[in-house]
Write a structure and sequence with these properties.
Structural class: alpha/beta
Number of helices: 23
Strand order of the largest sheet: 5-4-8-7-6
CATH superfamily of the domain at 240-388: P-loop containing nucleotide triphosphate hydrolases
Helix content: 40-55%
Radius of gyration: 35 Å
CATH topology of the domain at 240-388: Rossmann fold
Distance between the termini: 48 Å
Shape: elongated
CATH architecture of the domain at 240-388: 3-Layer(aba) Sandwich
CATH class of the domain at 240-388: Alpha Beta
Largest sheet: 5 strands, antiparallel
């Protein structure tokens, strides 16, 4: 922007033709090099003299006259004011601009919606007439920059703020702040904090056998529609013996889902055996899976040893990382799945097993089948029912709940009493992409619990890479279409219910929802609920 203004205000942009019949003796002659000068630097000279600009041949190419220059400068200022107004209107952040006397000179529509203060009421007045302890005045006064600082400019309003001084010619002439409204995140944080004590009490009751868990899928934490679809499909598959292939990135909870399917089936209470196909060396795989007879190889026990499949008899075997299974072992596994009969290594007696098979992978088995890395017949045998676990970045709305559930578990494990998580911490966790998914989030919460020095988890307890992580992520990642649609529908239903309970009184409605009245107005307007007749019909 600065380079553009420097170019836009060159003297050549203000040159006008010589007025007809004008005597040039009224002008001071200057060569064309003056056209590269900044026009503002020529103003003192133009107060005394008009300037005629000559080219290399001595011909007059135009003149600079103070009146004409001022007219163009006024036009330029109006254009720039229009550009600035458009910038302030298009951003989703609350923008406030003050001058060196703390007078408000910029206040956009988002600020009006969040704080309920119209531009006509605040522009030209001191910011201190409306707010106290402001970051924007502090950065202007101290000539320093602030980024992603948690701030509560007024009651029941929470923001993350970026603020910088406005500098010109080596001196500060004001300040500007951009605030990201995180009020809803904070309110959810507080609600979960209150609920954490109830969760703790319930866990203690479970330990004392006062309450018995009846739904194995309760360990699948979260309420996102995609997760609910996963649980619904798994719940329908659980009572059968159908093979289930669970897909998803590492850390999404595939083994937890497999265990829930087992516990929701008729095989609950029987063995649940996990076989990590990527962790067992190829040369040991057969002896580990099928077992071995005495003397089958050097070092074999005197009585032999049953394999993992025998151990899982009448129960469920979970084949994790099935995509890592070498091709020569795939055919042997296929035979077991087809016949439920195999031989121990070194044995001649067939062993029959009654097992239910679940498997999981983070690889694209279809591509492996096409390239010959994975047997097609084994793929179809495993893929009777396919379930896709969504990555955590696609269900960010579940992150606050996950944080507090993990928090309670690790507080009990390490004997900590943590009562609150700072809002900025929750905001940072929501904004991060979580390549390690729920497992990475769980490890992060454990780290914060261990390092927390008091009863509150603060930003300094976050890992370094999260402290430096920007909150400005693309809208497509932060709010995928399906998440945005689900969130909007849920938000609409909650607001409508509160409006009906309050009889249409928006002040009471805002109190019921626990949000500022200005926030309620903004949301009603965005959801098309601002018309009373409309919400009553809904």
């Amino acid at each position: 922007m600065a380079m553009y203004l420097e170019k836009k205000l060159q003297a050549r942009d203000f040159l006008v033709p010589v007025p007809a019949g004008e005597e040039l003796n009224r002008y001071v002659l200057r060569d064309e090099e003056i056209l590269d000068a900044h026009i503002l630097g020529l103003i003192p000279f133009l107060r005394e003299h008009n300037v005629a600009v000559t080219d290399k041949n001595g011909r007059v190419s135009g003149v600079l006259v103070l009146e004409n220059v001022v007219e163009k400068l006024i036009e330029f200022i109006r254009d720039e004011e229009a550009v600035l107004s458009s910038i302030l209107g298009v951003t989703d952040d609350v923008i406030c601009v003050i001058d060196h006397e703390d007078t408000v000179i910029g206040w956009n529509r988002k600020a009006e919606l969040l704080y309920g203060i119209k531009s006509v009421d605040i522009l030209g007045r001191s910011i201190h007439d409306f707010f106290t302890n402001l970051v924007v005045t502090r950065v202007s006064r101290e000539d320093r920059e602030v980024y992603a600082e948690y701030h509560q400019p007024c009651q029941d309003t929470h923001v993350l703020i970026n603020a910088v001084p406005i500098r010109r010619g080596g001196r500060v002439i004001g300040g500007v702040s951009a605030e990201k409204d995180v009020t809803e995140v904070i309110q959810l944080n507080r609600a979960l904090s209150r609920a954490s004590y109830q969760v703790k009490a319930l866990k203690e009751a479970i330990k004392k056998n006062e309450i018995k868990s009846v739904d194995p899928f309760n360990r699948m934490y979260g309420h996102h529609p995609r997760l609910k679809n996963v649980i619904d499909l798994a719940r329908r598959a659980a009572p059968t013996d159908a093979t289930v292939l669970i897909r998803g990135e590492s850390g999404t909870g595939k083994e937890i889902l497999a265990r829930a399917i087992h516990e929701a089936s008729d095989r609950a209470g029987k063995p649940f055996v996990v076989v990590n196909c990527g962790a067992i060396p190829g040369e040991l795989f057969e002896s580990e899976i099928f077992g071995y007879e005495h003397g089958a190889f050097t070092g074999a026990g005197l009585k032999g040893k049953p394999g993992l499949l025998e151990t899982a008899n009448e129960g469920t075997v979970f084949l994790d990382e099935i995509g890592e299974l070498p091709p020569n072992l795939q055919v042997k596994l296929l035979r077991v799945l087809q016949e439920r009969v195999f031989y121990r290594v070194g044995g001649s007696r067939p062993v029959s097993v009654d097992i239910r098979v679940l498997s999981a992978t983070n690889r694209r088995l279809e591509e492996m089948v096409a390239s010959g890395e994975f047997r097609e017949d084994l793929y179809y045998r495993l893929n009777v029912i396919s379930i896709e676990m969504p990555p955590l970045r696609e269900r960010r709305a579940d992150i606050p709940e996950l944080v507090y559930r993990f928090l309670q578990g690790y507080c009990q494990l390490y004997g900590k009493e943590i009562t609150r998580v700072e809002p900025a911490v929750i905001a940072a966790l929501i904004s991060y992409s979580w390549p390690g998914n729920v497992r990475e989030l769980k490890n992060t919460v454990e780290r914060m619990v261990v390092l927390a020095e008091g009863s509150v988890i603060t930003e300094k307890d976050l890992p370094k890479y999260l402290q430096e992580h920007t909150l400005s992520i693309p809208a497509e990642r932060e709010n995928p279409p399906q998440l945005a649609a689900a969130a909007e529908q849920t938000e609409r239903e909650v607001i409508l219910k509160a409006l009906r309970e309050a009889g249409g009184n928006r002040t009471v409605t805002a109190r019921l929802l626990g949000v500022p009245r200005s926030t309620l107005y903004y949301k009603m307007n965005r959801l098309g609920l601002i018309n009373k007749k409309r919400w009553r019909q809904n």
